[in-house]
Write a structure and sequence with these properties.
483 residues, alpha/beta, Amidase signature (AS) enzymes, eleven-stranded mixed β-sheet, two-stranded antiparallel ribbon, 36% helix
Length: 483
């Protein structure tokens, strides 16, 4: 098989030393993406001209003896629906926005490029990120690099497939219910969801978006834990235009990756006391747990008592997401003349329409009552963290599902014989989006069919470094699968 790109750390080191020409290298990467993207449908737009211009600029900076940053010459892919880069399309996988083009850059994009990164394109997502699989009416599904008949997961599925398929070493994603961790688990790569607002998100006209309801976070998908930590060091830190953003950490996340976890106390739950999980997934994660023991940590199985059923938890996530989508749809209709439930209703998927309708029908008091469920999840997490340093679980309850043939791929309707909502009910990831805790998904092995299984690591709030340390300990002891 054709070799993949090197790690971001290796690329940046060689560029800074002058042993890797950034312009020639980016040309090679762009050629690889052009030739191989049809295999998985990971990219929706390749920004070749801008990437070459950026690479030449880095080359000139090096020639002049100036610093080019910790991500010098590193190719990066952006999740199309959740990022803005001036002059680049942002369709959100939705027919009404097929011609939409960004006029500004997202804060994290500015920070990536200031650190020397080179944006090479944008990646595929489901329509407006409303489900945990990647498929939409504009460009179709993103295929799983391990089995092209199956889905790569979502909603950052294109980003995960681009990294797993060796097209780029780093891809951006945004996680509002598992959108970083779900596709990472299904695609055999690493994803890190930081503590809420570790990475600032400057949103307008509502600068307080996501503070109530679903706590979403921008983060990296990578082939190594070190690369993900390097990215968070670059894009994290306070921004004055984000009223909820956190200050810069005093210690480097990159340095945390190499820290030992001797003496760590780790809690393990296979199901949070309520989620159905496929036996093959459960077994694979169970087998990976001894890795923590080999690293000097102790692992104990715990019984979680959230106080709500799996379906009640799922319904809360859907209600909160629906409210956000409903508010977005109302704004579009009033200010931009785009009526998603009127003239564009038939352009939108049924699952998206039902979420928008539910959000518009919800009262403010009903919306606020859902925070009682969020509070129960938060308290259940904190009950665990009174005794343990980390909480681990399977990332996703099932193995990758097969793609539909009509651009409508959703998750399973049942897991291990238990009915689940196909949009998100098969994912244990969204609990962390109720609370804002940092979480990662790391490859734990493969199921009997050779498909990747992810292990989710959840840290105490603000202890992103601890999650990186535990992730590094696993990475050094479990080989990651290769498609």
């Amino acid at each position: 098989m054709e070799s993949s790109v090197q790690s971001a750390t290796e690329i940046a080191t060689q560029v800074r030393r002058g042993t890797l020409n950034p312009t020639d290298f980016i040309d090679t990467v762009l050629d690889r993406i052009t030739r191989r993207n049809d295999r998985t449908n990971a990219f929706v737009e390749i920004t070749a001209d801008d990437a070459r211009s950026r690479a030449m600029s880095i080359e000139h900076e090096l020639s002049a003896g100036r610093s080019v940053g910790p991500l010098a010459g590193v190719p990066v892919a952006l999740k199309e629906s959740a990022s803005a880069k001036s002059g680049v399309k942002r369709t959100m996988g939705s027919v009404p926005f097929r011609g939409s083009v960004s006029e500004t850059d997202s804060t994290f994009v500015t920070r990536l490029e200031s650190a020397g990164a080179v944006v090479v394109g944008t990646t595929n997502t489901p329509e407006m990120d409303h489900k945990g699989t990647t498929d939409n009416p504009l460009v179709g599904p993103t295929l799983n690099p391990f089995d092209l008949s199956r889905n790569a997961g979502g909603s950052s599925g294109g980003s995960a497939a681009a990294v797993a398929g060796g097209l780029v070493p780093i891809a951006h994603g945004k996680d509002a219910g598992g959108s970083l961790r779900i596709p990472a688990a299904w695609s055999g790569v690493y994803a890190f969801k930081p503590t809420f607002r570790r990475v600032p998100n400057v949103t307008r006209p509502d600068g307080f978006a996501d503070e109530l309801g679903i706590r979403s976070s921008h983060g990296p998908i990578t082939r190594s834990v070190e690369d993900a930590a390097l990215v968070l060091d670059v894009i994290g830190g306070h921004h004055p235009r984000d009223p909820a953003s956190l200050p810069v950490e005093s210690e480097s996340f990159r340095e945390a990756v190499d820290q030992p976890i001797d003496g760590y106390s780790i809690a393990y739950t296979p199901d949070f006391g309520t989620f159905p999980v496929e036996p093959a997934v459960r077994t694979t994660v169970d087998n990976a747990l001894e890795t923590f023991s080999r690293a000097g940590a102790t692992v104990e199985r715990v019984t979680m008592e959230i106080g709500y059923t799996h379906s009640e938890l799922t319904e809360t996530w859907l209600a909160l997401v629906g409210a956000n989508l409903g508010a977005f749809a109302e704004w579009l209709a009033e200010h931009d003349g785009i009526d998603l439930l009127g003239e564009h209703r038939n352009d939108c998927s049924d699952g998206l329409v039902s979420l928008i309708e539910s959000g518009m029908e919800m009262t403010a008091t009903e919306y606020l009552h859902h925070h009682v469920v969020r509070t129960a999840v938060h308290d259940a997490f904190e009950d665990v963290f009174e005794t343990y340093d980390l909480l681990v679980s399977p990332t996703v309850c099932c193995s990758p599902i097969e793609n539909a043939t009509d651009e409508s791929t959703s998750g399973p309707t049942a897991v291990d014989g238990v009915a689940v909502d196909p949009r998100i009910g098969w994912c244990q990831t969204f609990l962390c989006n109720f609370t804002g805790h940092p979480a990662a998904s790391i490859p734990a092995g493969t199921d009997p069919d050779g498909l990747p299984v992810g292990l989710q690591l959840i840290g105490q709030r603000f202890d992103d470094a601890g999650v990186f340390s535990a992730s590094g300990a696993i990475e050094r002891r479990i080989p990651w699968p290769t498609p």
